[in-house]
């Protein structure tokens, strides 16, 4: 698969053409790198015209990424602060020989038990596994709540790290993907994302009808979306 480039002034856009149906335009953190994946039938000239038409959106996305506050790199040691469900928690790391690695919540602390040999990367993985399990516990009730209201059925949901999106929906499979980072955000942000992806089962695009459905099922959603996008994001470290 060959990677090509389109240059628009000072902006360079990488392009790959492959066996897909639609054009996908992505802006990646942390510095707003832009990439287009397109069906093989599109020429570079055609994709250049497409990119020019999307420049205002590209610039907005790049500016949001560049200006968004970011957490400082974490070392996963005691007395360090970490976000969970929209609240700051102190991390309490207990090193115990032969201990079963785990994270538990206690009042305003996240208690991490690890063997002394555990590295920073292993502690990071452990915490994000805790986040994943937290989402897996909270999301089913939200899905059930809105399935009955919307008259749709979600076949399954999955949690993973996602670099450019908070969530996505595979409409054909009725499958929802959620970004593991949502475990760190306020509960209303998680609920907003679940509703957003479920509405895609009724309306594929972000059309006027989509926005109307969001107004119906989750009034006030623009304010929650704004909150989500203004909160600090994790330091860019994709080890977990």
From TrEMBL:
Q: What InterPro entries does the database record attribute to this sequence?
A: UTP_pyrophosphatase-like, YgjP-like_metallopeptidase
Q: YgjP-like metallopeptidase domain: which residues?
A: 25-230
Would you say which domain of life the source belongs to? Bacteria
Protein name, entry field: M48 family metallopeptidase
């Amino acid at each position: 698969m060959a990677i090509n480039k389109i240059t628009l002034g000072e902006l360079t856009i990488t392009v790959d053409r492959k066996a897909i149906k639609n054009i996908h335009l992505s802006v990646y953190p942390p510095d707003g790198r832009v990439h287009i994946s397109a069906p093989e039938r599109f020429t570079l000239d055609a994709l250049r015209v497409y990119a020019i038409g999307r420049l205002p959106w590209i610039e907005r996305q790049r500016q949001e990424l560049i200006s968004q506050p970011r957490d400082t790199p974490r070392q996963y040691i005691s007395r360090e602060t970490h976000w969970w469900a929209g609240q700051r928690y102190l991390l309490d790391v207990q090193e115990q020989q032969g201990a079963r690695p785990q994270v538990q919540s206690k009042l305003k602390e996240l208690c991490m038990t690890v063997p002394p040999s555990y590295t920073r990367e292993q502690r990071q993985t452990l915490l994000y596994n805790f986040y994943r399990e937290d989402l897996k516990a909270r999301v089913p009730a939200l899905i059930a709540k809105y399935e009955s209201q919307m008259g749709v059925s979600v076949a399954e949901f999955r949690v993973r790290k996602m670099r450019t999106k908070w969530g996505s929906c595979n409409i054909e499979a009725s499958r929802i993907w959620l970004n593991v980072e949502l475990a760190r955000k306020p509960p209303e942000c998680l609920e907003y994302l679940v509703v957003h992806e479920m509405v895609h089962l009724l309306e594929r695009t972000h059309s006027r009808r989509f926005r109307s459905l969001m107004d119906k099922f989750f009034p006030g959603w623009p304010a929650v979306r704004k909150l989500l996008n203004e909160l600090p994001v994790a330091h860019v470290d994709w080890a977990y």
